Model the fold of this input.
Amino acid sequence: MLFNSFEFVYFFVAFFILYWFVTNKDLKLQNLLLLVAGYIFYAWSDWRFLSYLIGISALNYFLGIYIEKTLNPKHKQWLLYVGLVQGIGGLAFFKYFNFFITSFKDAFHLIGINLNTLTLNIALPLGISFFTFRTISYVLDVHNEKIKATKNWVVFFTYVSFFPSILSGPIDRAKNLIPQLENKRELDYHKGIDGFFLIIWGLFKKLVIADNCGVITNVVFKNYLELPSSTLILNSFLYTIQLYADFSGYSDMAIGISRLMGFSISKNFDFPFFAQNIAEFWRKWHISLTNWLTDYVFTPLSIAFRDYGSWGLTAAIIFNFTIIGIWHGANWTYVLFGFLHGCYFIPLILTGNLNKKKKLAKDELLPSFREFFNMLGTFTLFMISLIIFRSESISNAIEYLNRIFSPSILSIPKFRGEENTTAIISLFFIAIFFIVEWKYRFNDFVFNGISKRGLSIQIVNILFIVLALYFFSGSMKSYIYFNF
Amino acid sequence: MKIEDILKQVNDIFIDTLDNDQVIITEATTANDVEEWDSLTHIQLVVAIEKHFKIRFTSKEIQSWNNVGEMLTCIQEKGV
Done:
């Protein structure tokens, strides 16, 4: 069920009434409703894996309780391994099985041995990367005594299947979400209105910006061999915006919907295109994933490598980013994408600039020349990496990059037929989108605090967004991050 | 050494490593309270503290601290 579908609107209105007006007196009943709604929401998209979701919830629920109960450290460790093997094994099987087999086969082929191995036709359970990361962090945190295991199964099962964020994140930790599930939620007027604005802003980003850009990028990435360099550059720019608008639009909607239910879930983006170097960029991009990996991959690694100075740090960073790349799926393009981002950190580490946080000047209408130049540089590095990310294979990505560095770089970007109009519409709304983001750059979210401003301002903003949605929505597409 | 004395020395290490002479830490301080203290600088702080006091933490110890106070106790327990 997509957030931007009428099914979801009916589903959510019915849920909202039952949640706040029927079950609100009884927390257990309200949580049970949340759980059932989560399963309906999930099964609507893909019922085949509902039993998997319930099964891993049950397993990790009991693991949490027994890890906490057991006094023997060895037994504790073994129980933790069961959780890790299930989580990582599940991901490896559903996401990477065929990738491992074919890579293995290709490696043998290179040395002249042809293997006849089977590949399986495996369907990917929607949201598996997101809910698996929730269960893994849960057993780890219980094991490391960072949190207490919850004894309430409804709470735990709801934590794993929390519907606003099950398909595409943010990846909330137990520490944040479970206490909110255990305590009574209140419907706060300001929180609700801000949440509503976040939802429509997310819709605008998804339907008006991402889906219009998508019309162009889908065509250009297929036909890049026939197009001039300038078109390819513009296309890469549009894809960078598309990915951000698509993914952060979904996150905004997930956060907004959670607010309407009285929850505060993690932030996933913090205006990443205003970052002034790549380290800052990754503090602002897909925050819930990078925080997760920082805690469970980067920190243990950097501790282990700490005797090797800058090189140890570099190795930990490159490893961490390669994992971020692979997290997206089974393709060498993602591996290279992650590895490249790890390498982007090397100049910062070697020049000792890793610690220096560059803050944007407050109360300035525009960025300074230096700030702007830094932002543009960071954006360009990210844009180049996304060419690899989006290409079907590494050789396609190299071809695409090769074509960029050709004399046609000086021509005027041109698409075919109607795509020219779509490009102009996209660029127009991208300009507005940047202005709005810039205005709210020091806030947690766009439209923060709008509930406290005058009604006329609220109506003007709603009207603008609704009109843009009505007249300029692109053709409906699924979300890019549903595939990861 | 008394906890207060360790705190003073650790504060100096923070100032040096984070390159910010405005940093003042107390036992209750956490990484959220100090702007420059993040996952990247954390490891540099640990290394600097180990060098200064000539001690060695285990990976488990480093990951168990929830605030500066717990880190100071850990340093003290190492016989500093």
About this structure: The longest helix of chain B spans residues 3-18. Chain B has one domain: 3-77. Residues 45 and 56 of chain B are 13 Å apart (CA to CA).
